[in-house]
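Morning run. Coffee first, then this:
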Amino acid sequence: MPIALLDGPVIEAGESLSGPLDCTSGFPVRLTMPQPTDGWTPANLSFQISTDGSWFNDLYTFDGEEVLIPCIPGVAVIIPPDTFKAAVFLKIRSGRSSDPIVQEGARTFAVAVQEWA
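And here it is:
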């Protein structure tokens, strides 16, 4: 199956949660972090997912752990296939759901999706 690159989502300046990213073309398999020159305020990433783009839920594993990915500016992270398979729409949060970290400037991500057959 081909891979498509989606621009965004973006965490806007003064925010900790991005806008939604439409992943209807496939499921996320790679996450590219903002560039080091963007000035990332140190924080892990957590996520919200949605099936309709309106109602979002924090993303946890089946054993009750919040899904967290370290954010290292300028790197790409390969995502295990089942992590976001149910994510039709995706939001990225700076920090945990219980402790969001506000970013001082706009932070742009890129998401590669494995396209549906």
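The chain has one domain: 3-115. Good start to the day.
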